[in-house]
Amino acid sequence: MAAYPNNVGAQLGGGNVEWMLGATPAGSNARTDAASRETVAVAALRVERAVAVARLVFLGAILVRFLAVGATRWPSGVATIVPLSVGLVFSAAVLMWARRPPRGEALWLGSVSVDALACFGALLPNALWPSPEFPGVAGLPDTAAILLATAAAGLRLSPIAAMWAGLLNAASLIALVHIDAAVSGTRFATGLGPVSMYLTWVLGSGLVAVILARTIRRLVLRSAETAARTARAEQGLWTVLAEHHDLRSMLGAVSIRSDLLAEAYADPKNGASAERLRRQAEELRDGLARIRRVVEEVRGRALGDLAQARRPEPVVVAEVVGRVAEQLRLRFPEVALRIEPIDPRLAALVAGGETSLERILVNLLHNACEGNGRTGSATVSVAATMDAEARMLRVTVRDDGPGLPDVPGRSERATPAKPGGTGVGLSVVRGLVEGSGGVLTLARGEAGGTTAGFSLPLVPPT
What we know:
2 domains, about 60% helix, alpha+beta, Heat Shock Protein 90
């Protein structure tokens, strides 16, 4: 390989050394999933608190109206007041104590259940103790509250709660119609036609609520991803600015060394020895090499930040691997470049799309074929496998070349494998892989050679 980035965790065992850059795919996915659930829960709690305020106003208005018309006689008055009071108490409790997002769906399920109970309780007295002008449950305007409660369930950002609300309110309507028929018989217009139409409206409202919940949930997640990418880009900008300051310091030191070297050559009377001139020239060369490494580090990090700012795109891996392999076969005809069979359905999410994946593969395959600049590889193989459990796609590049150089310690960068190497390629690869949410690893085997691998989020095969 041409050069090797920072050692962010060296694992030594036997003759093997593996360098892993970034978090493990499973850990990264777990943190991402947890952050997504937390984001949705926070947004859903805000909506729930707003719904609680609306419920307080709505049920409070119904209760005031109910008391104003004097419909408080026993037992119909109590049958109405109790479920309305339950809704008011639940709403007050949400506003007072629901400060942090809950785990699971319990709060949202409880909320839509309270809505269904309030609607059922408000309509039940009409069916149990009908007045002479009562048109039946299906003909009562107040029954439209069931449709409102069903559709409002979609605001909870929980498709499960929305489905539960649709089923619960449909069961509530059926129960009210049965009670109406049992008490009043055929006296009211509660035939199969009106009831089935109303039931269709309720189930349709439930379907709308599910679609609404899924859509809002997706928008919330997309907004959170955009905010996270913006935050990472801002953090990367601050890092670039800090490294720019370091770069200025290095340039100052190199400038001083170049002045000293120029003075030594310009004035032969100062007695500068050849050894001293050689040492100053080496210091100047080393300083320029450090500057180049810093510039390429900044470039690689900037590429990663730019990749993170772009939405990942699904890329079919087999097509890109085949295209890049053909390019490298022309560049290194003496190397046997083998492509293991890759499922043509395998696709990965890559920030920057095919262009980024091509750049990653070109860098890794070029380094594998070229070796250390003096000794190349005879055989290079590429394989792609799917880790369904971690939801990651793993691409591995193996070669039989000279292998990795010395194990890096706590230094900023490992020793390049070939003379003059600066790690430009792997710096770019690392930025693009991590910008896509993946991990880059390098491993040295007992028999030599190098295994470079990277993982990317998997697009589930259809």
